[in-house]
Amino acid sequence: LHSKQKKFTFIIFQRDIQKRLSLPADLRLPISVVEKLNTTPILNRPLTRKNRRASLSEIGFGKLESYQKLEKLGEGTYATVYKGRSRLNDALVALKEIRLEQEEGAPCTAIREVSLLRDLRHANVVTLHDIIYTDKTLTLVFEYLDSDLKQYMDSCGNILSMNNVKIFTFQILRGLAYCHARRVLHRDLKPQNLLINHRGELKLADFGLARAKSVPTKTYSNEVVTLWYRPPDVLLGATDYSTHIDMWGVGCILYEMVTGRPFFRGCTVDEQLHLIFRALGTPRRPYHADLVERIEQSQFQFPLYRPEPFINHAPRLDVDGLDLLAQLLQFEGRDRIGAKDAMSHSFFSTLPQDVMQLTDTESIFTVPGVHLSRDPGRRTCTSHDYPYNLMKSRRQSML
């Protein structure tokens, strides 16, 4: 009884400390650290920013020596990502080490990512655990996830069960609904930026191109989204976009999960637009007046393609799935379904209703009846194989 009471007290203390120091809920502190902090007089009164920083530093946050690099996962223009281990609690982490140029300082994408992720706490958004700044590098410490959606699709021969398609799509929408409600656009959705752990929990990652949306009409750079997942209005130079920029990407990813191949694989903007219009039809007045005007103002010319029925492109989808896909892949951003509304679409009616009642930090897999099914294209699917040897592959995400 004494042991159980002590454990309960420890949990209460840990939760209180996590809340007071604004630590992520999934970050577990060692017992020795919690006990030490509970005897610290500074925690007995309201914390100033300076006191909070001092307490975090005392634990070991903000220090490179608190983390051990295990292996390199990938390297990009500005950053290298390592699989690492926290010496604070022995948990696996992902270390995104951003190189700082002396003349330029921290890249704007890194500053943007830090400022946004620091305030996001959601089960379907990757958690930023720590920030370490030195003269030469800025290191972001993230929770570690085994794989990403691209690797998951590759591992099952690009043939996912429809149940898994729904579970992954719902989690994407859930993460986006949370971000969009806080005026944050991701702007770079693609399978490589959707991380997945051994349980099947999916999290939005790589917010380097994301931006806080102060007002819907604010103008941003139109060079933002990876070409294959970029909507036509942005391809044609639209800069007044809002949350709908992310919804086109969701449609492309839904199609890719269902068919096993990207919908539009253009190498140039011109080719990308041709592929989109060949499949969905060339925009026409009065239905797509804004887009037609953009085409006329551009250097591009397109034949008058007629739209093909979505069932010709994605025959595995039922009527509800085809309807959702059509609402996501609308030419005009204002016509696309929003993330929150999409979560209530009848395509997800086979999921338990309780998935709509979850708190922000609760996983969809806490709902009874929600679990991944065996994918038709997967050769092996045992508990010993999961995550299907994906940990051995080198993830290029978060660069």
UniProtKB/TrEMBL annotation:
InterPro entries: CDK, Kinase-like_dom_sf, Prot_kinase_dom, Protein_kinase_ATP_BS, Ser/Thr_kinase_AS. Keywords: ATP-binding, Kinase, Nucleotide-binding, Serine/threonine-protein kinase, Transferase. The keyword Plastid does not apply. It catalyses: L-threonyl-[protein] + ATP = O-phospho-L-threonyl-[protein] + ADP + H(+); L-seryl-[protein] + ATP = O-phospho-L-seryl-[protein] + ADP + H(+). Pfam families: Pkinase (PF00069). It is an enzyme of class 2 (transferase). The keyword NADP does not apply. Its EC number is 2.7.11.22. One of its GO terms (cellular component) is nucleus. ATP binds at K96. Residues 67-348 form the Protein kinase domain. One of its GO terms (molecular function) is cyclin-dependent protein serine/threonine kinase activity. Belongs to the protein kinase superfamily. CMGC Ser/Thr protein kinase family. CDC2/CDKX subfamily. This is cyclin-dependent kinase. It comes from Trichinella patagoniensis. The lineage of its organism: Eukaryota, Metazoa, Ecdysozoa, Nematoda, Enoplea.
